[in-house]
């Protein structure tokens, strides 16, 4: 992550309060909501360079790159922490956080639900997270925050009858990443330190109930620049998961269940344990809304995957190590008369979206400071796409 000098007093007065992105289903870096159509994430120089030199043929299959912003940690009079973005002068304007947004609704619910039953408010939760972080390793801290989310957040989201209200249904992974990120920033950097974030298109902003599948693609996940210890760890994860035999593994998932009015969620730990048959069943589950299999999704998803496969085959020297593929569609079924597909106005087909994300370890000929260059297209990524298309054909 890129860190800059301290923020000046003038910049500190103008800012956009960032919210956790509640449709983040995978990854470990916190993805934040900047506005309705834009998300931001900690800037990694290699990823920024990739977006800035992106081949034209790949732009259809990646989020739109919208530049960078400065972010700093802000502590209010009660000691509560938040992240605030300072946009460029030409982009500065009035910014209002909608009280109807999912993130605000959930945070307000967390704050209102305290006292009885041992439930923690958001402020108490943050305080507990930060108080322990000084004496814990990063791995322990992440594990504890994950367990805390599983234990606390679902109970806070239920009404008096134990039912989950539709507007309160969310994937806890985004909050998990956000809290871990806040803890790290608080312990490693001074409060007024500036950090650079990437601004990217929110590719699911068009959906009412975004159903998202995050697939870690390829048979190799480690970059050329990692330590031997990290390389061994990533190779072990690949060998023990479907990455080795399928060229992909599930890194996160949420699918809207129309019968229960909430999201069914799976995380990367679930994905690592899956067998090939388990992967197939989970992919089937991703296309099932609790009432029926969304068979109308199969053809447009396969069509876009074939188009992406053609693009990847044409990109010589690129290696998309540790990159993910997002497959998304709307859990809210549209009327037949208004159904469209991504990049087409053809009627009768639901809207689906295929995007490549996470390029922190992507390498290609001509990229800066590369010690290794490769010939031809990425074989691991191609292997994964071919298997994914075949499994969807079988379904």
TrEMBL record:
It is an enzyme of class 2 (transferase). Pfam families: IPK (PF03770). Keywords: Kinase, Transferase. Its EC number is 2.7.-.-. The keyword Protease does not apply. GO terms for molecular function: ATP binding; inositol hexakisphosphate kinase activity. GO terms for biological process: inositol phosphate biosynthetic process; phosphatidylinositol phosphate biosynthetic process. It comes from the Eukaryota. GO terms for cellular component: cytoplasm; nucleus. Belongs to the inositol phosphokinase (IPK) family. This is Kinase.
